[in-house]
Every structure is written in structure tokens, then in C-alpha cells.
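Action item from last week, closing it out:
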Amino acid sequence: MTSLNRGAVERVRPVQLAPLIAAVRTSIVRQLLPWFRRHARALPWRRRRTPYRVLVSELMLQQTRADQAAPYFERFIRRFPDWRALAAADEADVLKAWEGLGYYARARNLRRLAQWIVNKGGGRLPKSVDALRRLPGIGPYTAAAVGSLAFGLDAAAVDGNVRRVLARVFELSAPRGVSLEAECRRLAADLLPKGRAGAFNEAMMELGAVVCLPRAPRCTDCPLRGVCRSAATGTPEQYPRRAPRKRVPHYVVGAAVTLDARGRALIAQRKSEEMLGGLWEFPGGKIEPGETMAECIARELKEELGIEIEVGERLTVVRHAYSHFTIELHAHFARRIRGRPRRIHCADFAWVPVARLRDRPFSRADLRIIEALEAWVAAARSHPRGRASNISDTSDRPQTSPVTVSAT
């Protein structure tokens, strides 16, 4: 028998799936949408829906679960209630409001988008999916979600929850990746009930979030169980197929907690084009082969800020996982012994009282350092002798001068 090439397979496969697609489409209208009306969670972005609120929520929901995003959304909307308020805000204030959600490029893109809308877009989002996709920070999923929810456009939005539902209903063999994404977009477009895209998108996402779970899916509660292939074969957890897992890089990192004679901490701001751009941090970096931790921290401070430091005792160790690597962050006290800080490999630097550190936006890892430093300050106040020696700035005073650690 003559083998089919890939193009031929793609042409045959939709015909083979046609009866199931029709059955699923019917089940969506008769079972899924009524189920969603009865069981939809009371999430804040589902109230007083406007294009602005829809877009803010959709950007927050990228890489963040709805229950985690909800309190951030409410605080963000109170702080920046509309496009004009967000466009006029300082980037630092926007990042501070986003602090803890991660993926901070979303916040920077959202602010830039607000400025474009206010200055060039007539104060409104464009009302077509293609035009939405041309805006900064908006990809295919976000454009479809905003178009359907804010403007009633017939656009299917496919996120991780929807991919999982479709992969299980149709027992899709493609592993997670580009091919599965493309297949799910085609299926979602075929299944979408015309004129009801917003309800369809939200219902599919809700189903994946609360019923069609990654582990231990609640198949008996699923409104699509009657048309789900993997439920029929008892194999839902085998879908979506997993691609071979890549080794996640792990880095050991050092950071300096440098205090001056007034008890202020030296912090640096990351450049906007870098990961975590615009956030503040305790300066440092990755340890090089053959270095001790003290040598690593001293080198990084010299390269980043142009100062020489003496590295002291360890304050804390923070272990943190990002999306594509993990770190073990060693924070050590340090004192400046020569030079004044300069902006060499950072956007800015500042000497900040410990009690005012939280006024600025930090990553979660650096917030853990702040927690440890606050505890150290409290202990130093209770036991002033012996706790503050060998860690504070001595470049501008005799080394025998007393050290005062202030939290104000």
C-alpha cells in the first residue's frame, strides 16, 4: 500500500474526526454551556466587564491560576482603574502592584499598551483580533480572549486548560508543543458556537481549571464525559502527551546585603531589557567555576557597581524556581571598603532604609532576603552588642566607629 505523506494525512484526518467534532459541538451547546452558567466561579473580572478589565485579567492569568490572580486583580484595578490612570503611572508603581505575580514583562507591556491607547488609540482598544495581535505584549491567545469577551468576536482562545480538555476529548497523540497547539486551535475554531464565543471560551477554561484537572480529573462531574474518548478508555491522565523532559538548569548565586553607617541597604535596579527588568535587587550574580561565595559576591559588586567590598557572614539562603531554571541564592552581609557606587551594569542604585525597602518592587527571591534582613534588624535592636559588627560600610569612617542599624 502506498504510504501517505504528511500533507495527505492532514487532509484525511479532519474527515475521520468529523463525526466526533459534530458530537462534541452538540454536547458543548447542550451540556457544557448550561453547566458553566450554573457552576462558574465568582471571579472579580467577571463583574463589570470592560475591555480594560478583560485585558488586565487576561494578562494576569497568563502563567497564573485564577485563585492566585484574583486578589492581585482587585488591588491593581483599585490602584489603576482605567487606561489613563495606568498610562500616567510610573513604571515602578506598576511593577510594585504586580509584585509577586512574576513574568514582569506583562506589567511593562500593559503600561506601554495603556500609553499607546491614550496617546494614539483614541482611548480604546481596537475591535478586531488582527488589530489586537499587533499591540505590544498581545499574542494569539490574549487577542482571541479579549476579542471574544470584550467585543463578542467569534474567536477561539486556547490556553493550557483548553489544550488539556481537547487533548483528552479527542485523544490527541501530538506531544505538548507547537504541533499540539496548532491542532487544538483548529479544533477549538471548529467547535466554537457562532455568536457565543465568550461563553464557549470561559466554559472550556473553567472546565479545565476545576474538573479536567492535570491529575485526578473529576470525569464523573464532566459535562463532556459522554463524548470524551479518554474518559471512555479510562486514560485521561495520559493526555496531553508529554514531550521528553529537559534538564532544568540550576544556578548558585550570591548577593550582597551592604549596609552603610546609617543602616541603609544598597540595592540596584535591573535594566529594563533584562529578565525581571525594572525590579530592584540586592546586587550579585552567578558563581563562576573555582570561586568561593565571597569571591563571587565581591567580583559581582565590582563589575556591577564599581565598588570594593568585604564579604561577611551569611544572612540567608533562598531557593527559588523560575519557569526555565532554578537558583540557590546566598545572601551575605557586606561592607563597602573602597569606591562609590556607579551605574555600570544596572539601571540605577539606591541606599534605602530597611523599613522602606518594601516601597520598591522586588522579585520573590529578593523579598525573602528582605524578610531575613528585617528579622536581623529586630534582633539587632534587642541585642545591640555583637550583632552589627563586621557588616557595615566603613569606607568613610574609622573602623572603630560604632555601628547603628536603623529600620527607618
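Closing note: The chain is about 45% helix and 15% strand.
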